Structure formats: structure tokens, C-alpha cells
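Me: I'm a chemist; would you kindly supply a protein sequence with its C-alpha cells?

Assistant:
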Amino acid sequence: MNYRELVTAMTEPEKVDTITLGAGGAAYPAAFALARAGQQVVMVDPKGVMSGNCLAEGCVPSKAVYEVAELYRRVTAAPMSRALGALTGPPDYAQVVAWKDQVQKDRYRQHDGELQAASANLRLVPGTGRLIDSHTVEVNTTGSAKRFQAAQIIIASGADVFVPPIPGAQLCVTSRDLFALEPTVTSLPARLAVIGGGYVGLEVACMLRALGSQVTVIEALPGLLAGMDPDFVTLLAAGIDPTISIQLSASVTAVTKGDGGGFTVHYRIGDADSTVDADLVLMAVGRRPVIPDGATELGLPRAGHGLAVDVSMQVPGYPHLYAPGDVNGRSMLFHSAVRQSLVAAHNILAGNRVVDRMDFDSVPATIFTAPQGAYVGLTRAKAAEQARQVVEAAYPMADDSRAQILGDTYGEIRLFCDAQSLRLVGGWVVGADAAQLIGQIGESVAAGLTAYDLARFADQHPTAAEGIGKAARTLVG
């Protein structure tokens, strides 16, 4: 593109109905819905493919590794190992990575097909988008720029790994190095140090420990999984492999490279300095919303590290601007982003009037550790904060036939109901099939079901889901 063409492209923006900044879970559900309704939609994404970090380096590839590690953990632990006999050894980590890559490639092909099917009204433009004003986006690619003008803009730029300014942080890997397509880490470290005791750090710690790594987790705060119900965290943490060394209230001061090619993590607990040697150091201290260029200059309001949004997904003061997903920082989960994206689409199709609202309280979350832990809605700590009177019902996994079949009997299903109406307001699951069970509990919360409703439902046997009804029956008979 010559100078004249560049100037023309920048001064005469192409007019479309809606632009999305991003092409991940907070963007493409809305883009498809709007395109099907006849809108001309442009998705802008620097990856140049339709997917977000979930597929690129997050939940999908990490769970592909997790499922292999979890299967191996179960079949090598008593009592299931007695039925199977001795195995020759853990799986080859390079083959585990190859399996993860295959899952990602399959999903990328699936997304390509979906995009092609919607191509009449929907385009994906590779590049980085910058807000020029509240209706105009400039897309920059290598050596060129193009402007689009839209009636609505969906800011769905997601989040990225946060790396704190610790000396030697550049020596660490992040989840991207483990889970991106064709990642840089393809062999299992004999010794792994994890900086951060959030869900990413603990998930990696559990899966690589199950595959054979010696693991140390270093967390600056006094407890793991900051922001989650402390009683839930205590229950979950008590079931984690005790051979994983967990150092709490430990501030990392530096990471250095050792003489033998390994690394040393230096940290301080109180006045005492300590170190741990490792062959690989994972930086897992959290993720931060990615605020697109131009948002600050426009004065778009913030909430914490993210953009402020109403339950309509609209940016306050800008009814034609929407910010679903990780960029608002309110519920940084893929499935939450998808629902937020659809809320935005429904309100756009209603002429930017609020006809749909996001219910953040019924979004479930799962920590894919061993054991799994999952929660939704109002649990014990939140109920106490709000002075909300709740009654609890629990069912131990030790009594569950599915958990006994798996040889994984640690944990419980716990329900929280309004003390007066017995309407379900929240719950948690620790143990077998927690990720599947929490969705059923979350749907019940969203639907306003009561303990009576749950107790009357004849769930399948032998599945852990029948424990939900059994827990409810401890309240209503």
C-alpha cells in the first residue's frame, strides 16, 4: 500500500454494523448471532484466527494434559492399581504434548468451518485494533492500516498473563510456554517450582506431580486460591497430594540461573530467606485484562483492572459500547464470556436497549486440581459477609458409589439454601466429577430451585450427581 492509498484508507473508514475487538469467547458468539440477524460484522484479532486464549493456551490444552495426568494418577493409586496391575511407567510427556496439540488443531479446524459458514455477513480481519473514537476502530497490521466505523463496538480483547517485576522473571515460563500450540516446554521437568498459588499454579502443580515431577508451590499470601471461600479452599487443599511442597506467606525476591543449567527461586518467609532449586520455574501469579489502545484516551470508565460494565454488558455512559468477557475482569472464565457475549448481542439487536442481563451469581467455576474443586453462587463466606441466613446440606463422597468405583472418595457435595424458603443459592463440590456436578447445581441456582425440587428429582445411578438430591433430602426428608 502506497502513501496515498494509506491516507485514503485512514480517512474514509469502511462502514459496518458491529466491530468486535477480539475473536475469542467474548466476541464470536455475538458476532455469529448478529451476522445471522443480517448485520455486517467485522472481528479484529491479532492472532488472525477465531478463538481466544482458552484454545490458544488456556482451558482446552491445559485440560487435555490434565485428563492424561488424572487418568494416570487414578490407575496408579490404590485401590484401582490392584485391579490393573503394575504399569511400566508414566506416559511420555512429549506424547502428552502431541495429544494436546492434536486437540487444539481439531478445534481450530472446527472454528474455521464455523467462520466460513457465516462468511456472508462476517469477516475476520487479522491485526490489532485501536479505538479512534467511540464508533471508529483503526486496524493495524504489518505495513498497513484500515479504519472501520460501526454503530456498535464490542470490546472483547480478553486478558493476558501478568508477570510481576521480580528480578529474573524473564527466566520463568508461563502457562503459554506449557499449553500453546507446539509449546516451548515439551519435556517433563524433574523439579518444578511454581510461583503463585492460584488456580493456574495449583492445576499445573497437580498435573505435573501426577506425571512424575517434584513440585514446590510458592505463594505470597497466607492462603491458596485467593478470593475463594476459605472453607472451600481448606477442604480442597487438604486433599491435594501431600508430596507437593506448598510455601505460604512466601515473597519471591529473585530467580537466578544455576551453574548446572537449572534455576534457583529465592524467597522470604518473615525474616527468613530460603531457596528452592528447580529445572523449570512457572510464573503463575494471575492474568490482567487487556485494555485496547484508545480506551484510556476516550475516558472509558474502569472497574479494578478492567473496563466497567453494567449487567447489560454496556460500558456506562456509552450504550453502543459493550465489554464482555475477561476485559471487564468480573468473571474471567470462558463459559462466562460466551454468555456475556450473547447478552451483548441480544441488547444490540434490541437497538441498544436492555432486554437481556448477565447473571454473574450463577456462573460456576472449577479448579482442575486433584481432587477437583468447584463452586457457584453464594457460599459460606459470602453469606456471612451479607448477613444472609442460609442452611447447609452435605453429602460425603466417601458414601458415593461413583467415587468408590473411581477409587477417589475424598470430598463432598455441599448445598447452601436460603434459611426461610430453602431456595438454592449456592454450592460447592470437592472430589469426583466436580466439574460436571457444579453445572447442574449452577443451573438450579439460576432457575430458583429449592431443596424440595432437588430432593424430588431421581438422578442417575451410579453417578455422583445423585449426591445432589441426597444432600437436599437431609434438609427436607
